[in-house]
Amino acid sequence: MSEGTVHYSVAGGIATVTFDRPEARNAMTWAMYGALATACDKIVSDDAVRVAVFRGAGGAFVAGTDIQQFTSFTGADDGIAYEKRIDAAIGQIEGIPKPVIAVVEGFAWGAGWRLRPLATSGSRRRARALACRLREHWAIAFRSAMWRGLWRVSGLAGPSAC
Question: How many other β-carbons are positioned within 10 Å of the β-carbon of residue 107?
Fold first, then answer.
């Protein structure tokens, strides 16, 4: 299976970031997280970019992190380092001072689940609607990463969203 790619392009003031590993439903590899960080840096530093669009290739958004990479973990510290890496990636996208749109088609689990709310950062109304839907489906948020994603959406929507 491929390492995948994160493509970055700019046209007409729109930066497009495409997660491209469709054979694994765009499950993120360490290399893809590195490319995502580079793309975010470019979006922030390029004054010609007015909006950023994140999307997946091949009918899926992002199906999380490729868990096959976890076989290299040798202890709990590796798991903690992984969670910090994911938090940093999400934080970097949240820190983009321009409108961000996520085109979510198909799978969006794990890291992909956490990326979805970022599209709502420019609109509290949409964040409230998403937070309400998430509250209805809280049972599927079983990983700590998913709980942090729910916390972030709640922060956007406010404590009395529904």
Answer: 18
Beta strands 100-103; 51-56: pairing state = parallel
| Residue-range definition of the domain harbouring residue 143 | 5-157
Residue 59 CA: distances (Å) to CA of 56, 63, 148:
7, 11, 26
pTM for the model = 0.70
29, 66 Cβ separation under 8 angstroms:
yes
The C-alpha atoms of residue 59 and residue 56 are separated, in whole angstroms, by: 7
Tokens of 120: 């709502």
Domain of 109, CATH number, reads: 3.90.226.10
What are the Cα distances from residue 79, in Å, to 31, 74, 75, 84, 144? 17, 9, 7, 9, 11
In a domain, 36, yes or no: yes
The token pair at 63 is 């199906």
pLDDT in tens, 2-48: 899 999 999 999 999 999 999 999 999 999 999 999 999 999 999 99
What the block records as the tokens of 94 is: 């949240």
Token representation of residue 15: 């930066």
pLDDT digits (tens, 9 = 90+) for 93-107: 888 888 888 887 776
Spatial distance between the Cα atoms of 31 and 76, rounded to a whole number of angstroms: 22
pLDDT per position as a tens digit, 45-63: 999 999 998 899 998 888 8
